[in-house]
Amino acid sequence: MGQQQLLLILLGVIVISVAVAIGITMFSDSAISTNRDALVSDLQNLATRAQQFYHRPTSMGGGGNSFNLLTTGSIALLTATPTDANGSFYIETAGNGSGINAIVVIRGVGTELNNGTPVAARVFVYPDRDSVVTLN
User: What separation in angstroms does the CA of 115 have from each of 88, 118, 122?
Assistant: First the structure.
C-alpha cells in the first residue's frame, strides 16, 4: 500500500509540473503576441500620421506631397514621443521617390523578447496605402 501511494504522489507531482511548464509557456507566448499586435497597431497609427504629413501643405507644417522633410530625427513630427509602453519607433528611410513612388519606412522594436531578440515590425508607408511586415 505504501508503494502505491508513493507512485500516486509521484505521478501527481509530474502532472502538476507539466501543467505549470505549459502554463508558463502559454503566458510567455501570449505576452509576445500581445506586444507584437500592439506594436503593429502603433505602426499603423504612425503610418496614418505620415500620410497626413505627406498630404498637408508645407505652409501648414506638412510635407507638401513629399516625405522628404520627414527625417530619421524628426519622428516627433508624427508623435510626441518615439517610445511608448509597446516599444520604440524609428524612421528608417524617408523621402525616397516622388508622387505615388514616395515612401517612408518606420520600424518598431517591442519590449518583449522572442527567442532572445526583441519583437519587431516595419511599416512601408506610401501616399495612398501602407504595408506592415512583422520581423520577429
Answer: 19, 8, 19
